[in-house]
Amino acid sequence: MAQYTRVSGSVGLITLQNPPVNALSAAVRLGIGEAVQRALGDQEVQSVVICGQNGLFCGGADIREFGKEMTGPPLVPMIHAIEAATKPVVAAIEGSALGGGLELALGCHYRISHCKARLGLPEVTLGLLPAAGGTQRLPRLIGVPAALNLITTGHHVTAAEALQLGIVDQVTEHNAVDVAVKFALSVTGKPLHDRRVSSLECPAAPDLDSLFEEAMLKVRVACVQAVRAAATLPYARGMEREKALMATLFGSGQARALQYFFFAQRAVGRWSTPGGARWDTSQPRPVRTAAVIGLGTMGRGITVALAQAGLSVVAVETQAKQLTEARKAVAGMLKRAAVRRGTTPEPGSITYSDQLQAAARADLVIEAVFEDMEVKETLFRQLSAVCRPDALLCTNTSSLDVDHLASQTRHPHLVLGMHFFAPAQAMKLLEVVYGARSSPTAVATAMQLGKTMGKVSVAVGNCRGFAGNRMLKRYLEQAFFLLEEGATPEGVDRALEEFGFAMGVFRMSDLSGLDVGWRVRKAEGLAQSGLTGPSARVRQGRRYSPLGDLLCEHQRFGQKSGRGWYQYEPDPWLHRFLEEYRARHGLLPRRIDQQEVLERCLFVLINEGFQILEDRIVAGPEDIDAIYVLGYGWPRHRGGPMFYAHMVGLERVAQRLEHYHQAHPEVPYLQPCGLLRRLVASGSPPIHRWRRAIAGPHSQL
Ligand SMILES: CCCCCCCC/C=C\C/C=C/C(=O)SCCNC(=O)CCNC(=O)[C@H](O)C(C)(C)COP(=O)(O)OP(=O)(O)OC[C@H]1O[C@@H](n2cnc3c(N)ncnc32)[C@H](O)[C@@H]1OP(=O)(O)O
Question: Is 123 a catalytic residue?
Answer without folding.
Answer: yes
